[in-house]
Amino acid sequence: MPQETANSMLTVSTSTSTSIAIAITIAIVGAPGTGKSSFSLSVARRFELDIYVLNLSSIDDSRLNSLFSQLPPHCVILLEDIDAASTTRTEDSETTENAGQAVGNVSLSALLNALDGVSSQEGRLLIMTTNHIERLDDALIRPGRVNRQVLFQLADKKMASRLFCTVFKRSDGDHSNPGKEIDDKTIERLADEFAAKVPDQVFSPAEILLSFLLERKQSPTDAVADVKNWVAKKGER
């Protein structure tokens, strides 16, 4: 994750430290493999903060309150795949009638109270990831409770090209990988050829990187030659 991406999303105090200066809640939306969890870990590393990952389906209201009360003043809290535990939307999620709806084993009211507690504590960053934002209750993601919603998309041609360059471009002093003996200008040309054969918004970055490129990291030319057949086989599934 480029540092400018994190910096553009977060307000930080650069005069005293790299810690987050205010409380921030971000909802990251995207299909599996688009980098939601990886981004969260990168943000924690970038700002040198501990990260706490909570699985709502494995805890109840009491445990949720206990865990949130033990969080340090400055940290990242990650609620992964919150839609997998969440209920569907309601007409008015914050009315008394709906306040007891369950989010997994956690009631919606308890979760909202926990989130509001996080937002009142400077120096904490809460990240919620979801594959299906339409399944979330409006109360979870309303303005004021969530500072920003960010969409992580499936790979386009620009992303496919960048992934190719990441795998095959040489770093200083890197001569261990035969695939990195080709000069960077040639790699960029091959990356454009590779990207032209990858359809937009079909594959996740993780799928392109892990299922294809890294399996051919010894030869960028093989990657370009093989990608058309790989795409076709994926389309048959």
Automatic annotation (TrEMBL):
Organism superkingdom: Eukaryota
Protein's recorded name: AAA+ ATPase domain-containing protein
Pfam family, one: AAA_lid_BCS1
GO molecular function: ATP binding; ATP hydrolysis activity
Cross-referenced SUPFAM superfamilies: P-loop containing nucleoside triphosphate hydrolases (SSF52540)
InterPro entries (UniProt xref): AAA+_ATPase, AAA_lid_BCS1, ATPase_AAA_core, ATPase_AAA_CS, Mitochondrial_chaperone_BCS1, P-loop_NTPase
Keywords: ATP-binding, Nucleotide-binding
The keyword ATP-binding belongs to this UniProt entry's keyword annotation: yes
Species per Swiss-Prot/TrEMBL record: [Emmonsia] crescens
Sequence ranges assigned to domain AAA+ ATPase in this UniProt record: 22-156
Stated family: Belongs to the AAA ATPase family. BCS1 subfamily.
